[in-house]
Structure formats: structure tokens, C-alpha cells
Amino acid sequence: MRASLLALLRERPMHGYEMITEIGERTGGVWRPSPGSVYPTLQLLEEEGLVKANEESGKKLFELTEQGRAEAEQAGASPWDEAGRRDDWEAVQEVGAALAAVDHAVRQVMMTGTEEQRTKGLAVLAEAKKKLYLILAEEA
């Protein structure tokens, strides 16, 4: 996160939301950091004297300090490229579609099912979680 924010600010001053959007676009949607990870990192960078924030129309515009620019130069040009290589985009989409289908089925059972059906539905979810962890426990 830190290296990505510094690299973006090396290009130009930006608002936090702009940085979130930029990283999402540059990774082809594979990585879109949450505000809960971006803003605390920006605050830490500010406390370390690497960035400074200026109020502009009620929003904070972040820019590198000289010290921040020096660190950004050492970090590399585009650390977000690693996120795009790490994940197989087709696999991410396949998992997302499967999770959405399961979510839909769970909601249906929980909203319209009997008490017995809801209990069975929760048991299926607990068993699925157990089986997923067992896959990781298998020897490669």
C-alpha cells in the first residue's frame, strides 16, 4: 500500500479517493484498496513527513515532501503491477460468480425457509468452510 501511494503521488498531488480509483484502474480491477487501508497509510506517511495534506474544497489533497519524493524514487515506478500478476483475473471472476450464487441461495433459505431449513443451511455452510480448509491442509 505504502509503495503504491508514494508512486502515485510522485506523478501528481491526489485526493485519497483518486488514489483508490487509480490503483483499481492500473490493476485492471484486481486490486481496489479500501478507504480503511488507504487513509490510515496516508496519515502515517504524513506523520513520517513523507507527504503533506492541503485542504482544497473541504477535501485533503496529498502531495510528496522532498523526503517523500526521495523515498518514492527508491521504491520503483509501479508497485501495483505485482498485484495484477499475482492474481489470475479469470479465476477471480469465477470465484466471484460462485460466491454470488451461493450468497443468493443462502439469502433465499434464510428469508423464506423454515427453521429446520435454516438450520440445515447453516450446517451446509459450516461443512463447506471445513472442506475448504481441508483442501489447504492436503499435501501438495
Automatic annotation (TrEMBL):
**What Pfam families has UniProt attached to this entry?**
PadR
Domain (Transcription regulator PadR N-terminal): give its ranges: 5-73
In terms of InterPro entries, this protein maps to: ArsR-like_HTH, Tscrpt_reg_PadR_N, WH-like_DNA-bd_sf, WH_DNA-bd_sf
Q: Which CDD domains match?
A: HTH_ARSR
> Which PANTHER family does this one have?
TRANSCRIPTION REGULATOR, PADR-LIKE FAMILY, TRANSCRIPTIONAL REGULATOR YQJI
Q: What is this protein called?
A: PadR family transcriptional regulator
